[in-house]
Amino acid sequence: MRWTIKPKPKQEDIDALANALQVDKLVAQLLLQRGISTFEEAKNFFRPQLSDLHDPFLMKDMDIAVARIEKAIADGENILVYGDYDVDGTTAVALMSSYLLSYYPNVATYIPDRYAEGYGVSFKGIDFAEDNGFTLIIALDCGVKAIDKVAYAKEKDIDFIICDHHRPGKDLPDAVAILDPKRDDCNYPYDELCGCGVGFKLIQALGSRRGDTIDDVIYYLDLVATAIGADIVPITGENRILAFYGLQVINQQPRIGFKAIIDQINKSVLTITDVVFIIAPRINAAGRMKHGQHAVNLLTETNMDVAIKFASEIETFNTDRRGLDQEITQEALVQIQDNEEEEGFTSVVYKDSWHKGVIGIVASRLTETYYRPTLVFTKSGDKLAASARSVKGFDVYNALEGCADYIEQFGGHKYAAGLTLLEDQYNNFKHQFEKVVKETIDPQMLIPEITIDAVIELKDINPKLMRILKQFAPFGPGNMSPTFMAENVHDTGYAKGVGKEEAHLKIAVVQEDSHRIDGIGFNMGDKLSLVTGRKPFDAVFSLDENEWQGNISIQLKLKDIK
After folding, report:
1. What is the CA radius of gyration of the chain?
2. Which residues of 214-252 are buried (b: 16+ CB within 10 A; e: fewer)?
3. Which is nearest to 89 in space by CA: 183, 205, 204, 194?
4. Domains of the chain, each with CATH number or no CATH
5. Second label for 469, Cα 20 to 30 Å away, from 119, 232, 297, 501?
6. pLDDT of 436-454, one tens digit each?
């Protein structure tokens, strides 16, 4: 692990902000490191306001999209809401369809089959639209690169409105409207929305034309917050506002589908982390193991008894997904170990029988283990399909562009992407991917990095600091939970391994005359010898609250020790 301490802001800036906000200098330092330097910016950070959401009509083509939907409704057209099968796509479809159905009946949904159709807009989906009399398709979380599919639809007199957030290619589809803040010609003030977020901007615009205010569509933010967390987009700017209020909806007035999931897990208050690791995997499991439409059905259901049945089915999908995920990960690890002499800057593995629905998860696990750009391939029809994952700082999407000669189709983000290619191009692609990564990656990126916000004394950790740090939430990319380093601490003789096979490390530390603070290091049981015998060490950690038998105490959530 590389430990990198963030540059400390100028002391005069820390003093000025601490004085303006009447907060501790450590808090002022953390805010400045997040680009917050004035009282007004701090107010917006700690108290996000829905009124600060941007005007949706600032997005390129928004006025055209709204006009086309209004025309469809006025003329009684059938509207098909189409979306990808992952969390971002299914939440976006649930959002758009349930909003339109609240005042117009001729709306249906379509999620492509992961195995029969693959990612994004499909010819089969367009044929379905034609066969069933749909003349307008609203595509969410996909479509910005579907040039041939949109042209095919146009031949059938079917119009497209695309709501996407992926990076466009050099040419755009011939759609009626393309809402994508990453378009070069789009001047929308915030370009990190997820697909569901772009969909929300569209219903915000539609609502404003009907006289609705933001309070009339706040109910849909539980879906947006879930997509923001699951799609790992930055929780900054507009996303922070949407996630903040979306979490309030999840915790105070969740839709029936979410309530059916939450009731199963028996957790009173959910954070964005809970959304990412509890709700999102269950929604994703539908598309991975069966069909994404199951997730849409759950998220749009209004009858609790039916929702409980849907949630139970999805829980089964998720259990099956976990078993497959573990099995395939082990096989992939063996494959990498067997071919270690061939490996350099990348990990690329393939087996034709691996379940397509979990290769993305497996790619993430392999990246965590070997920490290098990773692709996991499986057979999909007459082609190979792969999920790609990357390491911090390296743009795997750009690397795939450097291999475009061997790829049939690809899309995605800086850290996660998907692609298909012909089987006879697999070895060519594998060698080219290794070559591109080797030539473009900084070798330092292949060493996991922990970014430390500040060096702290244990005596400065107290309930007041914890209360303020909790207000930094929701956490995520662009606003991670603050990470601290404490130097020259030692265990009080309490250190031990805990959990299955003592995989985790439990400690209780002091530093000079500080009070004792407990700490837990998950999957750090192998570091027990570093802390026994009261040997001094440095620790990197975030702060967490531990609840035990009704008592709440602050604990260190260890990330590494040296």
Report:
1. 25
2. eeebebbbbbbbbbbbbbebbbbbbbbbbbbbbbebbbe
3. 194
4. 56-312 (3.90.1640.30), 340-446 (3.10.310.30), 453-561 (2.40.50.460)
5. 232
6. 999 999 999 999 999 999 9
